[in-house]
Amino acid sequence: MANENFRLVSPDFDNGGRLPRKYTADGQGALKELSPPLEWYGVPYGTKSLALLVQDIDAPKPSSPLVPWVHWVVINIPPSLKGLPAGFSRMEQVLGGDYAVIQEGVNDWKMHGYRGPKPPTHGHRYQFMLYALNDWLDLGKKYPKSILVSPQMLHLLWSAEIHTVSKVNDMAYRLALPMELARIHDAFHVLMLTNYEAGMLTVDRKTLYGRP
């Protein structure tokens, strides 16, 4: 349920803009796979806690065309907070105060906390969903993304979202190619799609993402 007064933003990227490299797996050194900074406004009256879900909504899966790949699940965010700073993931206890009660869930790499994108193709969209709930969630120390699409969501009051993209859009990349290379690009994609639909091409998702 959306509410135009309940807004989620980031000071480091625009809605629909590119996700900065330091928040991806392509960053360098300490500036790599940091959880992005987020801010929210207009938290609905009656909100007891906030929950956050970050997922790649263009992630492929061999058994179906698109199945979102979860990068971050966060629950029990106090509504007294106005946002999360950059690099917040796994720092709840260090930051203390209201941050200390926040819980991070298990992403699709079966790890707690945030993990940055490294998609196999350009132009993947990343959805940041913030949920306003009328209760706290008591789910123990381990819980998957399914908690945000489960009966727990009966506590949902409102939601807000923003999107970002990885690298450049594949179509923009194609249009920038010389005509002959563009034809090769298109022929390659047709061949891959044909082999995939014929069952001649199988892909393990972890291998596809190049991540353990």
From TrEMBL:
Signal peptide: none annotated. SUPFAM superfamilies: PEBP-like. Pfam families: PBP, SH3_Tf2-1. It comes from the Eukaryota. Residues 165-196 form the Tf2-1-like SH3-like domain. This is UPF0098 protein. The lineage of its organism: Eukaryota, Viridiplantae, Streptophyta, Embryophyta, Tracheophyta.
